From TrEMBL:
<feature type="transmembrane region" description="Helical">
    <location>
        <begin position="20"/>
        <end position="41"/>
    </location>
</feature>
<dbReference type="GO" id="GO:0046872">
    <property type="term" value="F:metal ion binding"/>
</dbReference>
<keyword id="KW-0479">Metal-binding</keyword>
<keyword id="KW-0812">Transmembrane</keyword>
<keyword id="KW-0560">Oxidoreductase</keyword>
<dbReference type="InterPro" id="IPR011008">
    <property type="entry name" value="Dimeric_a/b-barrel"/>
</dbReference>
<comment type="similarity">
    <text>Belongs to the DyP-type peroxidase family.</text>
</comment>
<keyword id="KW-0732">Signal</keyword>
<protein>
    <recommendedName>
        <fullName>Deferrochelatase</fullName>
        <ecNumber>1.11.1.-</ecNumber>
    </recommendedName>
</protein>
<dbReference type="Pfam" id="PF20628">
    <property type="entry name" value="Dyp_perox_C"/>
</dbReference>
<feature type="domain" description="Dyp-type peroxidase N-terminal">
    <location>
        <begin position="72"/>
        <end position="225"/>
    </location>
</feature>
<dbReference type="InterPro" id="IPR006314">
    <property type="entry name" value="Dyp_peroxidase"/>
</dbReference>
<keyword id="KW-0349">Heme</keyword>
<dbReference type="GO" id="GO:0030313">
    <property type="term" value="C:cell envelope"/>
</dbReference>
<keyword id="KW-0575">Peroxidase</keyword>
<dbReference type="GO" id="GO:0005829">
    <property type="term" value="C:cytosol"/>
</dbReference>
<dbReference type="GO" id="GO:0004601">
    <property type="term" value="F:peroxidase activity"/>
</dbReference>
């Protein structure tokens, strides 16, 4: 069936040239807003709500998350629907070239966050276009671009070894790790999140393109969660095991909580990381066929939460407090001691900000099974005190380990934000 939605019809009326003229996002919102383009132009979490109203300057502005600021966007930012992230290895041989790369990435990212092409389009027919073009006419849909540096960035190539932050350790090998090189490490990580996979891909592709001669791709990983279209209410997303994931994330909208858990402080070493954060990426394969054959009781005992409501076992509400001391009438803890939440709760003493996405990567040709899992991403102020002890505990005791394998890994120092006129990394360089 080829029913054409009104927005599709409107879409066709826009020529490439029109789109280029309109590439300034404010222009798109203002000029096209009244013309029945709502579905096509809509972005954002809860975007289906926006679809009923004419796209206005305000609706358009909703899709822009400023790139410049004290902190990089994409860390505390409420999660977008898609992620496209990559690690790069530097081929640049001088610090000056590395600096140049961060300068061009910064100005390009600021434009991409506003839904613009990566550089002004030239009409010269003898040159390749300055932008690959697949985002023409698309709104920025809350695009954020976040940069981080891996430990290898601080080796002896650029004279920066003395500047390696102490928290940027080599992650230890955890019990039952099955880490593969092709999903791990890299000199630089670039996390792009947006509410449209094409917009996210476009941003990453163009950042890779303008890095030519200075950096090459090391790995690329993509992830998703339910979208604003399927869940306008914005409830906690479910992971591919069917459980709500993110319910007990710390309330980082409170700046004191974010300072405590996420942001490196000026009193922490090194000073140039103040306002930055440390990102851990773990590609965690789920043995979903095995999981699908386990009973509901077993699944709920594995997480320590009810599948349907997301409530802690023995409780009714998703956001009810975990009662780890509570016993059933036989004297057993109602939340098993080896369950995922009982262990990751860390007695309430250690917290991280989780910001992960599901991934699905076709079929595992060796087993004929779905290759899918969790692109676990978390931010913390010092992984030596937060992620590492938590993962050590989980790796050795978590009942969830029967169903998962960590196959990729990375730790990156996400730089402080840049102000307009500055660039990402300017506190370091
Ligand atoms: C495939 C792997 C994983 C899955 C499917 C998973 C899933 C879940 C689920 C369903 C919850 C309960 C709801 C919530 O509060 O979000 C949860 C909680 C949590 N998870 Fe995971 N998780 C995984 C890996 C990890 C890893 C590697 C870590 C950190 C090392 C971690 C840390 C946490 C923390 C801190 C909580 C909250 C605990 C609390 O209530 O205080 N998770 N996870």
């Amino acid at each position: 069936m080829t029913t054409e939605r009104p927005e599709d019809a409107s879409h066709k009326k826009i020529t490439r040239r029109d789109a280029l003229k309109l590439a300034g996002v404010g222009g798109v919102g203002l000029l096209l807003g009244a013309g029945g383009m709502n579905g096509w132009l809509q972005g954002g979490a809860g975007s289906s709500k926006a679809s009923t109203a004419a796209a206005s300057a305000t609706a358009s502005a909703e899709g822009i998350i400023p790139f410049y600021g004290k902190h990089q966007a994409g860390i505390l930012t409420p999660m977008q629907d898609f992620i496209c992230m990559a690690a790069f290895d530097l081929t640049a041989t001088t610090l000056e070239d590395v600096r140049k790369l961060f300068k061009i990435w910064t100005s390009a990212s600021a434009r991409l966050a506003e839904g613009k092409f990566v550089e002004e389009e030239s009409d010269n027919p003898h040159l390749p276009p300055g932008d690959t073009g697949e985002s023409a006419g698309l709104r920025p849909v809350r695009t954020t671009i976040t940069f981080g540096l891996g430990a290898s960035f601080f080796d002896d190539r650029f004279g920066l070894a003395g500047k390696r932050p102490a928290p940027l350790v080599d992650l230890p090998r955890f019990n039952s790790d099955e880490i593969r090189k092709e999903w791990s490490g890299g000199d630089i990580v670039v996390q792009v999140c947006a509410n449209d996979p094409q917009v996210a891909f476009h941003a990453l592709r163009n950042l890779a393109r303008i890095a030519r001669g200075k950096a090459v791709l090391h790995w690329v990983q993509e992830g998703f969660q339910r979208t604003g279209a399927s869940d306008p209410s914005g409830s906690t997303p479910r992971n591919l095991m069917g459980f709500k994931d993110g319910s007990n994330n710390p309330k980082v909208s409170d700046p004191a909580v974010a300072d405590e858990i996420v942001w490196a402080q000026s009193s922490d070493n090194p000073a140039w990381m103040a306002g930055g954060s440390y990102m851990v990426m773990r590609r965690i394969r789920m043995r979903i066929e095995v999981w699908d054959r386990s009973s509901l009781d077993d699944q709920e005992a594995t997480f320590g939460r009810h599948r349907h409501s997301g409530a802690p076992l023995s409780k009714a509400g998703e956001f009810d407090e975990l009662e780890l001391d509570r016993k059933d009438d036989k004297g057993n803890p109602v939340i098993p001691a080896n369950s995922h939440v009982a262990l990751s709760h860390m007695d309430g003493q250690v917290k991280i900000l989780r910001r992960g996405y599901s991934y699905s990567s076709g079929m595992d040709v060796k087993t004929g099974q779905l290759n899918a899992g969790l692109l676990f991403i978390c931010f913390n102020r010092d992984p030596r005190k937060q992620f590492i002890p938590m993962q050590q505990k989980l790796a050795s005791m978590d009942k969830l380990n029967e169903y998962i394998a960590h196959v990729g890994s990375g730790l990156y120092a996400c730089l402080p934000g840049a102000s307009a006129g500055g660039y990402i990394g300017d506190t370091l360089f």
